[in-house]
Amino acid sequence: MQGARSHHSLTAVSRRKVLKASAAALSMAAFPLPAIAQSKPFSGVTLHAASFQHRFFTLLQGYIPEFEERTGMKVDLQLSAFPVYNQQANLELSSGGSAFDVVNVTFILAARWVAAGLLANLDEFTSDPNLTPPEWNPKDFVDGAQVPYRDAKGSTYGYSWEGGAMLMGLSRMDLMEKKGLKVPTTFAELQQVCAEINGTDNVSGLVSFQLHHWCLPPYVQGFGGNIFRNPPADIMPALNTPQAIQGLEYYANLLKNDAPRGVLTYTEDQARQSLLTGRSNIFIHSSAWVTPILLSPDSKVKDTSRVVRMPAGPVHDYPASNSQGLGIPKNAKNKKAAWEFIKWALSPEISLRLVKEHGHSSVCRRSVITSEEYRKLNTVNGQDLGAMYLEVLELPAKGDNYMAYRTVKEFPIVGDVINKAVEQTVTGQLTASAALAAAQEQAVANLRRAGSAL
Amino acid sequence: MIEAGRRSFNRIALAPSLVVLAAVAGLPALYLLVVSLTPFQLANPGSSSDFSAPLRNYALLPGDPRFINSLLVQARLSFWSVLLQVILGTGLALLLNVKSRMVEFARTFFLIPMVLPPIEVAVIWKLVYTPDISPLYYAASLLHVTLPALTSDVSFALWSIIIADTWEWLPFTFLMVLAALQTIPDEYAGAAKVDGANPVQIFLYVTLPFITPILIVSAMFRLIDSVKAFPLIFLLTQGGPGDVTEVTNYYAYLLAFDNNEIGYSGAVTVVMLLLVSAVSLGVLWMGRRREALA
Amino acid sequence: MSVRPSGQASVRRRIAVVLTLLILLLPFLWLLQMSFKTNDQILQFPPPLIFTPTLENYSALWHSAFSQSFVNSLLSASFSTLLALLFGVPGAYALSRWSGRGKGSLRFVILVTRMAPPIAFTIPFFLFYRWIGLLDTVTGLVLVYTSFNLPLVIWMMQPFFETVPASLEEAALVDGASARVIFTRIMLPMVTPGIAATAILCFLYAWNDFFFALILTRTAARTAPVAVVNFMNYEGWEWGKIAAGGSLVMAPVLVFSLAVRRYLVSGLTAGAVKG
Fold it and tell me: C207 vs B252: CB contact, 8 Å cut-off?
C-alpha cells in the first residue's frame, strides 16, 4: 500500500509539474505581448508634459504615437491657453512641484526659472553618451536661441523649439510704390513711411500688440539706451535715461498716431490678422508672426508683401531675438523619460519633418535651417526668409549680447513696469519722461521688496 | 432629561459644521495673517519662516503707489456700479411692479445676467468690447460714429467695467426693491392719489421712505461683493491700460500669482478683509435695527 | 398703483417691459447667436444677422476635452451640494434651537466667509492640496466647494427651522420621541422646500466658480468655466467655440435658477435679507 501511495505522490508531483509547465506555455502563447513590451525601455511610464497651445505642439501630437510605440511610454501632453499655462506652470515650479516631467519654458519666464534653479541641468544628459548619441549635437542649436536657457556659468537648462527673430513685414508694397516710398532702413524712415501710409485706403501704418516689454527695447537700444545699466552684472534698472525716454517717445508716437484703434490690447494673433488681411502695413515681430504674409494660405497680400530686417537705430542695430524652450523641472519624477522625449522632439529628424511636411520653419537647428529643403521652402518671391531668420537669431551671440537684459531674473518685474509705462504714454496719461521716471521708481522699489540687493 | 437629550443631539448636529468652518475658514485666515508677517516669496526658500521684521509688509503698504491706486480704483468702481445698480434696479422694479401674469412671467428672464457664471459675463462683454466683432461697433459705424476701443482707452476702461458689472448685478437690486415695493399696502398710494398727488410725488413721499432701508441694505451688499471683482478685470483689461482698472483684489492676485510675493499679497488681502468685515458688521447691525423696529 | 383689475397691465407698460427685457438681454442673445455661426461668419464685418445656423461648434466641443470639463463641473457641484446639506441642515437646526451666547458672532463669521474674496483662501488651499496630493482632482474641488456652501446652507436653513412652531416639537417630546426622531420625522419634512431651494443655490455657486478652479486644477479636473477660457489661445481666439462653450456652461445654471427665483435674494445675501 505504501509503495502505491508513494508512486501516486510521485506521479502527482510530476503531473503537477507538467500541468504547471503547460499552463505557462499556454499563457505565453495566449499573451505574447507582455514579454515583448518588457523589452521597451520605458514601458509603464506615463510622461506628463505641459505647454501652451502652439502649432508646434499640435503638429508634434501627430508624431507622438510613433514615439510611444518605440519607447513604450505614454505621453500625456497637456496644452492650455497662454496666460493659463504660464501662471499654472510658474506656480507649480516655484512651489517645487513635481506634477510635470517636461515643461515649456516660456521666454518671459526663462530667466526667472533658470536663475531660481527650478529646472534640471540638461548638461548631465547631453554629456552622457549612453543617453544622448553624438549625432544629436547640442551645438547644432543656434546660439542666440540658447542664450536664455543658460545660467551664469554656462550650463544649459533648456533646448529651444521655437526661435523668435524680429523681422519687419510689409504687407502693402503696392501702396508704398504708389506713393514712391522705399522700404525703411532707419528709424527716421520708418516713422515717415508709417505716417504717410496711415489712413490711405483705410490701412494703418503700423500694427503692434500688447507685450510692450518685448516690442519697446529694440527702440530703446537703437537710441543707445538699455533696460538695465549693464546686465547681467549690473542689474540696476536704467529706465529713465534720456535714450530710454527717446525710445519710448518714438514707439509711443507710432502707436498713438499710426496704429489701429485698440492696438494696446491687441494680441499677437489680432496683429497678425490685421497684417494678413492688409489692414495694416507694417508689423515688427518674431518671424513666425510675420512670414505668414508670404507663406500662409490665409494671406490676402502674398503678392504685395516683403519681409526684411527691421530698421536700425541711430546708435545700434539690435533686433530682438528670443526663443521658447523645453525643459525638465528640478523635481520631476521621470527625468530620464523626460529627456528621451525632449531628445526626440528636438531631434534633427523631427525638426526637418516639421519643415518638410508642414512648412513649420521656426525651428532652431542650424543644420536644418541651412539645408536645401529649408531654403527651397522658405524662399518666396525671391526673399530668402531662412537666411534672415538665422541672421537675426545669431546676432546676440556674436559680440555684444544685447539680449542679456531679458535673461536676468529681475526682468519679469521690470518688464511689468515697462508695460504700464508704455500704456500710460500711448494713452496720453503721462509724458514719456514722466512715465519712465515713475517706472524707474517702481522698478527699484519692487525689486528691493522682492529681495534684490540694489 | 429630555432637555439633556436634546442638547446633546444639538451638539452632535452642530459639531461637524463647526469643525468644517474652523478648518476651512479659520485655518486659512490664520495662515493668511501669519504669512502676511513674513516676506514669503515662493522662489526664496526660507523666506516663509522669516519673522525678523513682522510688520515690514504693512509698513510698505502706504508707500506703495500701486496699492494706493488700487484702493482708489476700487472706490470709484464700487461707488459708480453700486449707484447705477440701485438707481436702475429701482427703475426696473417700479416698471415691473404690477399684478400681471405676463409681467410676472417676464420677470424671471430679467434674472439671467445675475445667475450666469461671472466668467461667462466677462466673455459676453469681451465680445461687446472687441471692435472686430462687436455689434456695438458695427452700430456705431453705421451711425458714422467712431468709438474708441473702450477697454484700452484711459477714460473709458473703468467705465467699461462698471457697465458690465452693472449689467450683471442689476437683477439683484431689482429683486430686492421689487420685494419691498410689493409689501407697500395699496391703500397708501390710493390715499395719496385721492389727495391729488401725481406719480412723482407718490414716489417721493410714499414709496421712497418705504424702500429706503432696502436700498441701503442692497447697496451695502453690493458694496461688499464689488470688492470681489475679478473675472471682468481678468478677461477685459488685466488691470490696464496702465493701472486704471487695477482694483485691490486684482493687485493681490498679481502679487501672489505673477510675482509669487505671497507675504506681501497676504498683507494686501488682510487689509481687504478688514474692509469687508467692517461693512459686514454694518449690514448685521442694520438688520438687527430693522428687526427691533419692525 | 393702478386701478385696473389685477391680472392686466396697460399695453404701454407691457410693451415697455418687453422692450427693456430685449435691450437688457441683447449681449446675452448676441453670444447665443454667435455659437451657431462659423468662425468666418463671426469675423465678417458687417456681421450677418440672417445666416444659416450650424451646429459644428457644439459638435466640435462635444468631441473635445470640453465634455470632460462639463462632467467635472457636474460632479464637483453635485457632490459638494450633497455634503454641504448633510452637514449644514442638522447644523442649522441646532443653531435655530440654540439659546446660548456666541450666536451673533457665529453669524458674523459665516457672513464674512461668504463675502471674503476667494484669494484670501486660495494660497493656503493650494499649498495644502499640493502637500496631500489633492491638486487637480475632483475630490479637491468638492471639498473646497463644500466648505463654502456649508455657511450658505446654515444661513438659508436657519430661518426655515425658526418658522416651525416649537409647539410641534413639544408635543412630540411629550409623546416620548427622541431628538433624532423629531428631527428626521417632523422637522425635515416641514422644511423640504427650503432644502430644495438651498440645494439648487449651492449647486449654482459651485458651478459658477472660476477662481478656485483656475488655481486648484490643471487639466484632469478642469471645470467648464475654466475650459471656456482655454479657447482663447495663443494662435487665435476660437470665437465660435467660446460662444458655444459659454452657452453650454450657462444652460444648467439658467434652468435651475429659474426654478428657485423666489429664494435667490435670500441666498445671495446669505440669508440676511428675506427675498
Answer: no
